[in-house]
Amino acid sequence: MKIVAVIGSAFGSKSRVAVNYTMNKIKEVREDAEVEVIDFSEIQFPFADGREYFQHEGEVGIALKKIMEADGLIIGTPIFQASMPGTLKNLFDMLPVNAFQNKVAGMIVTAGSEKHFLIPEQQIRPVLSYMKANLVPNYVFITDQDIIRKEIKNPDIEFRLDRFVDDFFLLLDTYQTMIQQKEAEYDF
């Protein structure tokens, strides 16, 4: 089972801290999970130029291929200027419209203000849905005071991230079972 997390910004640390906590939790609870983190601070993605994802080379091509091959996708992103970062939107633009078909996707979102708590619902969820993702119903929203000096200081955030992992795998396991049953009907 392949799980890919995308850290949707090239700068800032709070989303990175939350995603790393989550991926460590996944490794702890699911030994069958092969986890990978794609971090925009480590890979320089070009602007989307209309090429197919498989036409990209180097580390960008490898990252896009990993996303396409994943069973589950975790989007960890900050909210900037009441919107998703351009780097994350650019990634979505580099992938085909059905990139997330048969995948489960969930969101971990950080923001400087509680006033931005609906941005994931209004901007990120519709894109993931349009790209055919099966979405974890709840996302984790984290504000600046929850992570200080690259450490989660609010135990409720750890609880919610742990619960997110449970919900993510409940949906992923259920969905994969349904796919297997459907494929068995075709007797291939």
From TrEMBL:
InterPro entries reported for this sequence: Flavoprotein-like_sf, FMN_Rdtase-like_dom, NAD(P)H-dep_FMN_reductase
Family annotation (Gene3D superfamilies): 3.40.50.360
Ranges of residues in domain NADPH-dependent FMN reductase-like: 1-144
A Pfam short name: FMN_red
GO molecular function: oxidoreductase activity
Transcription as UniProt keyword: no
Name of the protein in question: FMN reductase
Taxonomic source organism: Candidatus Enterococcus palustris
